[in-house]
Design a protein that fits this description.
The chain has 336 residues and is α/β, with parallel strands linked by helices. It has two domains: 5-67, Transferase, Pyrimidine Nucleoside Phosphorylase, Chain C (Transferase, Pyrimidine Nucleoside Phosphorylase, Chain A, domain 3), CATH 1.20.970.10; 78-156 and 184-334, 3-Layer(aba) Sandwich (Pyrimidine Nucleoside Phosphorylase, Chain A, domain 2). It is built from 15 helices and seven strands. The chain has helices spanning 5-13, 20-31, 37-50, 54-67, 94-103, 122-128, 140-147, 154-157, 162-171, 177-180, 202-211, 269-280, 286-301, 308-320, 323-334, and strands at 78-82, 108-112, 149-153, 191-195, 216-222, 234-240, 243-249. The chain has a five-stranded mixed β-sheet, sandwiched between helices. Helix 3 crosses helix 9 (162-171) and helix 6 crosses helix 12. The longest helix is centred in the last third of the chain and has 16 residues, at 286-301.
Length: 336
């Protein structure tokens, strides 16, 4: 459908909400470069102040997916990523989980970016580890088959988002765009473990994924982090077989000890890469336990185990047997 952004803005200014098709059309105008910076900022602020609806998020994701550069992936591929925005500057967890799962031959099409709200993003730490995140896009399916993991560098797959970059930077606050990345994986995975910076957004994001054909997902938040933590209780919203439910999980359910978030505080790309490499080479401690907890959740989402304890035990074999390290080495070799 066609849409006039001035008319949309006038409606939003009165507190009205947009239907899915209206939101898709409005964000289509933005992502096609046909909106002015003032119009983009006005739409984002109107939605932010009133609160974005599931219909608006769904429409925006549809517009984003329609314009992304896709990647062929196995039907059972999963994604492990976070929204960012927790400002905790921890060690890279989802990137480490990627290698643990790949070592168990769970195909991971990891969607990610450079650091935006943290000191070190997935692309930063992978580059420091010798992985080429700018490999030609047509090689990604082969890399995913060979290494059981591939990094889908968001700016290369979602070029249409560049049109909103200026207003987003100038606004300097969270907008609907912070929620869209994890909902628009270029491999169109149907299973994912996704961390969210604010637990209030977990259910709306799950409802959006359900409407877009996702089979199974966990949206998680742990003590202020956009991932599961061993620091305490974690909030989870799960989609499985079309049903959505909310619950909490603790590190003890995975057989893991508690530790404060400060124990996995990270640094720059070199520091985080060094810690990740040490982990893959057998280092223990809270970082290992945090990765095991999240990998266990990933294995549940992938349908490989039924509970966190079994998942943590299986994930540990990937680290202790060298399979996770081998996955990194293969990815490094395949992207050279």
């Amino acid at each position: 459908m066609s849409v006039n952004l001035k008319t949309v803005l006038a409606r939003l200014a009165t507190g009205e909400t947009l239907a899915v098709e209206e939101s898709e059309a409005a964000f289509g105008v933005i992502m096609s470069g046909e909106a002015t910076p003032a119009q983009i900022a006005g739409l984002l602020m109107a939605m932010r102040v009133r609160g974005e609806t599931v219909a608006e998020i769904t429409g925006a994701v549809r517009a984003m997916r329609a314009r992304m550069t896709r990647v062929e992936a196995p039907a059972d591929a999963i994604d492990v990523c976070g929204t960012g925005g927790d400002n905790a500057s921890t060690l890279n967890v989802s990137t480490a989980v990627t290698f643990v799962l790949a070592g168990l031959k769970v195909p991971v099409a990891k969607h990610g970016n450079r650091a935006l709200s943290s000191r070190t993003g997935g692309a930063d730490v992978l580059t420091a580890l010798g992985v080429n995140v700018d490999v030609p896009l047509d090689r990604l399916p082969g890399i995913l088959r060979a290494a059981h993991c591939a990094f889908l560098f968001a700016p290369r797959h979602h070029a249409a988002l560049r049109h909103a970059a200026g207003p987003r930077v100038e606004l300097g606050m969270r907008t609907i765009f912070n929620l869209l990345g994890p909902l628009a994986n270029p491999a169109e995975v149907r299973r994912q473990l996704t961390g969210v910076f604010d637990p209030a957004w977990a259910r709306p994001m799950v409802e959006t994924l359900a409407s877009l054909g996702t089979e199974c997902c966990w949206l998680v938040h742990g003590q202020g982090l956009d991932e599961l933590t061993v620091a305490g209780e974690n909030q989870v919203v799960e989609l499985r077989d079309g049903a959505i439910r909310s619950f909490t999980v603790s590190p003890e359910e995975a057989g893991l000890a508690r530790a404060p978030i400060a124990a996995i505080r990270g640094g720059d790309a070199a520091v985080n890469a060094g810690a990740l490499l040490a982990l893959l080479r057998g280092a223990g401690g809270p970082y290992r336990d945090t990765v095991l907890l999240n990998a266990a959740a990933g294995l549940i989402v992938a349908g490989r185990v039924d509970d966190l304890r079994a998942g943590a035990v299986l994930a540990a074999t990937s680290l202790d047997g060298g399979a996770a390290l081998a996955a990194l080495e293969t990815l490094r070799r395949e992207t050279a």
